[in-house]
Amino acid sequence: MNNLLGIQTREEIYDIQTERLKQLVKYVYKNVPFYKNKFDNIGLLPEDIRTLEDIKLLPFTTKQDLRDNYPYGMFAAPMEKIVRIHASSGTTGTQTVVGYTKDDIETWSELMANTLRRYGITNNDIVQIAYGYGMFTGGLGVHYGVEHLGAAVVPISGGATEKQVLTMKKFGTTVLACTPSYALHIYDTMVKMGISPDELNLKIGVFGAEPWSDQMRSNIEDKFRIKAYDIYGLSEVMGPGVAGECFVQNGLHINEEHFIPEIISGDTLAPVEAGQLGELVFTTLTKQGIPLIRYRTRDISALEYDECECGCAFVRMRRVGARNDDMLIIRGVNVYPIQIERILLEFNELTPHYSLTIEKDNNLDKLTITIELQRNVNNYKEEELIKLHKSIRTKIHNILQISCNIEFVNPDTLPRSEGKIKRVFDKR
């Protein structure tokens, strides 16, 4: 796998990153007033960065910094060099805006293609992209990577789910790319249409843009009878293709020739040991449009440097199951939604469709988990539901140390999403 990139060892990666980091620091100091001011305020000169370890001398960058410099204040390249602009939805505040030069687009396409190769995708595949196209980077990011690889793109975008199913069947789609929650919705629609996975040529799924557990991966793989691979990226750093799994499915290889990853403590901002969980931080090494130094992603992960069975020397990041800002505090207990998902999917009577509602009841936090059953509620005996209800509550309490209410609903009751799904409703 390394031969695709010509990189064989950790030493080679270190050398590439060191040289590119030194060039990057000079570039942003010259072209981004935000970084020049940051450096000047701490008395740091670009010449002070001599080794890769010196990255710890550099200041962090946050999403708020991008918002404060909205829309183009963080751009390093002049607008006449910018050929593409993407932006976040802005649902939680001012949009974060990112720009790409022509070289950035070519780099993005190449690293995305290399990520797809690790899944076993070749130029013989037909890739149906059901990520949204537009300001969101998902659709176009995967699209350009597939074309760079030489595979055939079916740019269907999200929505029109029955059409998605018919397209997969009639076009002979071999790879489906979308969010994992939308993949489950596509499968439910297939069942209603009376179409079996045996009627499809599908063999690989490329799923990302939202946290999903290993239990949900198994659920998707069993239903579609495919290999489901995780892909990671974020608009601020590049888009999809920052990292992706290989056939081993034991962590996502980060494309380190373009990005330096770090894991820090979200509280102290100090580095943590390899293999330990913390907040994921990225420095972009080759971006021209909007390079970022030590960007705090808020995603919780860990870095594994031991050799992977696939032979790729790039470090692996653990699959992101949570974000710092996704954490719920329920009666003083820290809980991540994906922890609840893992427990729910251990019960065969339940589907992967659920929602979490937190409210105040007499000044106390009350968590209600609404979960779809595999069959209509009326098809279960009352004692079966009582036993299931008790089993779920007991397991959640034993593992997470929280109490909850369980609400069973019929299949197809909860809303489905064509993009990132909203599962948490905090009404406190």
From TrEMBL:
Gene3D superfamilies assigned: 3.30.300.30, N-terminal domain of ligase-like
Pathway note: Aromatic compound metabolism; phenylacetate degradation
InterPro entries attached to this UniProt entry: Adenylate-forming_Reductase, AMP-bd_C_sf, AMP-dep_Lig_C, ANL_N_sf, PA_CoA_ligase
Domain AMP-dependent ligase C-terminal residues, every copy: 332-428
Keyword Nucleotide-binding annotated: yes
Molecular function in Gene Ontology: nucleotide binding; phenylacetate-CoA ligase activity
Enzyme Commission (EC) number: 6.2.1.30
Gene Ontology annotations of biological process type: phenylacetate catabolic process
Lineage top rank: taxon: Bacteria
Keywords: Ligase, Nucleotide-binding
Family stated for the protein in its record: Belongs to the phenylacetyl-CoA ligase family.
Protein name per the record: Phenylacetate-coenzyme A ligase
Native source organism of the sequence: Clostridium cellulovorans (strain ATCC 35296 / DSM 3052 / OCM 3 / 743B)
UniProt lineage: Bacteria, Bacillati, Bacillota, Clostridia, Eubacteriales
